[in-house]
Amino acid sequence: MDFATPFLLTLKLSTITTLLLFVLGIPFAYWLASSRFRGKFFVESVVALPLVLPPTVLGFYLLMALGGNSFVGRWYESVFHKTLAFSFQGLVVGSFIYNLPFAIRPFQLAFSGVDKKLLEASWSLGRSKLYTFLFVIFPLSRQGVITGCILSFAHCVGEFGVVLMIGGNIPGITKVASVAIYDEVQVLNYGTANIYAAILLAFSFVILTVVYFVNRRFLLRMF
Amino acid sequence: MIKVRVKKTWKKFGLDVNFDIPHEKVTALFGPSGAGKSSVLRLVSGLERADGGMIHKGEDVWYDESKAINLLPQQRSVGFVFQDFALFPHLTVEKNVAYGIKEKKRLKEAKDLLSLVGLSGYERYYPGQLSGGQKQRVALTRALARRPDILLLDEPLSALDWETRRQLQEDLKRIIKQLRITTLYVTHDVTEVYKLADYVVVLEYGRVTKQGTPEDVFMGRRLSTRIQVVGKVVDIEFDSIMAAVIVLHETQYFKTLIDTEEVSRLNLRIGDNVVIGAKSSDVILCKVLTET
C-alpha cells in the first residue's frame, strides 16, 4: 500500500467533516444560542455525549444505525446501491456526529457571547434576524467559528475508535492514518508505525499551539 | 401623534401607562430609576411585547392586543438610541451610520448628518477609537439616518461626563429641532427635561402620575407663607420646589447642598432670576409654622 494513502484519506475525511460541520453546525449552534426552548439542555447533552462516551460505544451504535439491517442503512442502499457501513460516506457520518461538540460548543458560545443590545440595535434599524446574523453576530463570532473548525478538524485527524468500528480498515477507502498505525503495530512493523505516529503528533501539536495562541481566553470558557 | 396605552406585568413589577406622543415634538419620559421608563421605550419600539393595550401611530396600528397585531421592531420605523451606544464594534463610523439605510441615495444624507453632529472626518474610525461623546453622536446619527417616524432615546447622556453631557444636550436640541422629528426621550434629569422637552410625562412605579409642559408639571402654584428659620419668623414667597443634593439623611432630618459649581457655571449675577428644581421623591415635607 502507498505510504501516503492513509494520510490523504485522513485529510479528505477531516476536510469534508469540517465543511459539513461548518455548513450544518452554524445554523444549529445559532438555534441553540438564541432559542428559549425548554428542552434545550437535553439537546445540548446529546451534542456533548461524544465528549464522554468511549468511541467504541458511539461507533457500535452508529454501526447498528447505519448497517444493512437498519432503516437508514436500507434506505441508503436502495438509493445508492451500496452499503453505508464500511464505506467512506459512513465514516463521514460517524465523524460528523463524533465531532459535533468540538464545533457546536465554540460556535454556540461565540454566538451567545455577542451583546444582545447589538442585536436589538440591528432590529430597531429595520434589519431582519438573518441580516443581523450575517452582518453582526457572525463577524463578531469569527474567533469562535475559527476555533470550532480547527478543533474539529484536528480532532477528526486523531479519531480512531469510531472510525474503526464503522469503517474497518479497508485500504484506500476507510483506512485512515490512525488506523494505519494500529495495523502496522499489529504486524510488528514499528518503523512505519513510528513515522505515521510522529507525523500525527507533530500535526496535532502544531494545530493546538496555533489555536491556543490565537485565542487563549476564549478556550478557557469552553469546556 | 402616537397613542400609547399599554400594560405589562413582570414578576416583581407592573406597568400600566396611557399617554400621547405629539407629532414633531420632544416628549420626555421622566421619573426615578425603576419607574419603568426604559420598559415603556422597549414596548414602543417593539423590542418587548405588552400584555395588553395598543400603540397607534396615526392611522397605523403598531400593536393592538384585541386585534392580535404586534409589529416587529423591523416594521415600526423607530430610531433607538441606547444608553451605552450599542455601536457595532466591527464596523467603521460610516458603516455603522449606513447600517439601517436601504436606498443608496440616503447614503449622501447620512454623510450630511455626520457633519451635522460634527463628526465629518471620522468616517473611517472604529467605535473603539472614539470618546463617549463621539460614540453617542454616531449612535444618534445611525438612528436618524433611516428617517424613522420616531426617535427613541434611552437616557442617552447618562453614561457621559458632565461637560460632554452639557455639550451634547445643546447639539441634541439643535438637531432634533432642525430635523423636526417626533422624539421620546427617557431621562431622570430635570435639567434635561427643561432643556430639551416640549412635553413631559412623569412616570412613577409604572404609572403616569403627571403630564404636560415642563412648566406645568414642575412648577407649583405661587405660594406665599411664613416659615420659622432658626427661631426667626420670616415671610416668604416662592414659585417652585427646590433641588439640591442630599448630603446627610436621618429619620427626621436631612441636609442638602445646592450645587455651587452649577451656580458659577450658569454665570449668575445679583439680580438674575433662577429656578431651582428637585425630584419630588427627594423632598421631605415638613409642617410650616405660620403663627408665632
What does this structure look like?
The complex is a heterodimer of chains A (223) and B (292). Chain A is mainly alpha-helical and 223 residues long. Chain A has one domain (5-220): MetI-like (MetI-like fold, Orthogonal Bundle), CATH 1.10.3720. In chain A, 78% of the residues lie in helices and 0% in strands. In chain A, α5 runs antiparallel to α8, α8 (142-158) runs antiparallel to α11 (190-214) and α10 (177-186) runs antiparallel to α11 (190-214). The longest helix of chain A is centred in the N-terminal third of the chain and has 30 residues, at 5-34. Chain A is globular and about 65 Å long. By secondary structure, chain B is of the alpha/beta class. Chain B folds into two domains: 2-216, Rossmann fold (3-Layer(aba) Sandwich); 220-282, no CATH class. Helix content of chain B is 26%, strand content 32%. Chain B contains eight helices and 15 strands. Chain B has helices at residues 37-45, 93-98, 105-116, 132-145, 162-179, 190-196, 214-218, 260-265; strands spanning 2-9, 14-21, 26-30, 52-57, 60-64, 69-70, 78-81, 150-154, 182-187, 199-204, 207-212, 219-229, 232-240, 245-250, 253-257. In chain B, the strands form four sheets. Chain B has a six-stranded mixed β-sheet with strand order 7-8-9-3-10-11, sandwiched between helices. In chain B, strands 2-1-4-5-6 form a five-stranded antiparallel β-sheet, with helices on one face. A two-stranded antiparallel sheet of chain B has the order 12-13. In chain B, a hairpin with a 4-residue loop joins β5 (60-64) and β6 (69-70). Residues 221-225 and 238-246 of chain B have low confidence and may be disordered. The chains are: A mainly alpha (223), B alpha/beta (292).
